[in-house]
Amino acid sequence: MAGVKIYGKPISTCTARVLLCLEEVGAEYQLVSINMPSGEHKGPAHLARNPFGQIPALEDGDLVLFESRAISKYVLRKYKESGTDLLKEGNLAESAMVEVWLEAESQQYNPAISPIVWQSLIVPKMYGGTPDQAIIDSSLEKLKKVLEVYEARLSKSKYLAGNFFSLADLSHFPFTRYLMITPYASVFESYPHVKAWWEDITSRPAFKKVSAGMLDS
Ligand code: GS8
């Protein structure tokens, strides 16, 4: 099969980020499933692709990449002739704003939201454990502060980097998609512009398609 190879799982947030990019640009790709319960991600074949023993990894001929945000940029650059321009690299100011909000996603949003999803969804569902409520509560407080900043931003522009949809918006999808099936989804209700932004980006066909491969409850 032609196209790039993605090693990962559709239910994994970081794999979903890359799949969204591939779907947005309409690229041909092959998803190679990694068996996490058997520890395949820690075996030599996968460590050669991702030395941290994590998913996802991308293979394109001799080129092997890890880190989902870097892979996402590679995919968007490789397929930029598709007409879908989620990096705005032809415009210095717009591309800088994409980078700013992509950093905000990885450095501010992700550290606040991921422990909530991990504790309230992954721990009970995948490991049969009990969520640590103290971690959830402190992360919720952090997330609210981040969402205040997002609310102010999204009351001035339709999307995070400006009045155009970009990788910065897309990158928020996987963890937010999972927050929405936890008991803490209602946190978005206090931020109307953030909520409208979320409804807008989840109506995109690529989001619906990738979402269908993720956990549902
Ligand atoms: C994080 C990858 C990651 O945490 C990226 O690609 O963006 N910064 C990296 N992968 C998780 C699955 S969640 O999508 C993973 O592989 N966990 C298994 C492990 O760490 O052993």
In words, what does this structure look like?
With 217 residues, this protein is an alpha+beta fold. It has nine helices and four strands. A four-stranded mixed β-sheet has the order 2-1-3-4, covered by helices on one side. Helix 1 runs parallel beside helix 3 (68-78), helix 4 runs parallel beside helix 7 (173-179) and helix 5 (133-154) packs across helix 8. It is globular. The protein starts with a strand and ends in a 6-residue tail after the last helix. The mean pLDDT is 97. The structure holds S-Hydroxy-Glutathione (GS8). S-Hydroxy-Glutathione binds next to helix 1 and helix 3.
Topology:
Layout: E1 4-8, H1 13-25, E2 29-33, H2 44-47, E3 57-60, E4 63-66, H3 68-78, H4 92-127, H5 133-154, H6 167-170, H7 173-179, H8 192-202, H9 205-211
Parallel strand pairs: 1-2
Antiparallel strand pairs: 1-3, 3-4
Helix pairs in contact: 1-3, 1-9, 4-5, 4-7, 5-8
The chain binds S-Hydroxy-Glutathione.
In what range is the share of β-strand residues? 5-15%
Ligands bound to this protein structure: S-Hydroxy-Glutathione
What is the H/E string? EHEHEEHHHHHHH
Helix content: 40-55%
H/I helix tally: 9
Q: Specify the overall morphology.
A: globular
Observed structural traits:
217 residues, Glutathione_S-Trfase, alpha+beta, 9 helices, four-stranded mixed beta sheet, binds S-Hydroxy-Glutathione
In short:
With 217 residues, the protein is α+β, with helices and mostly antiparallel strands. The protein is 53% helix and 8% strand.
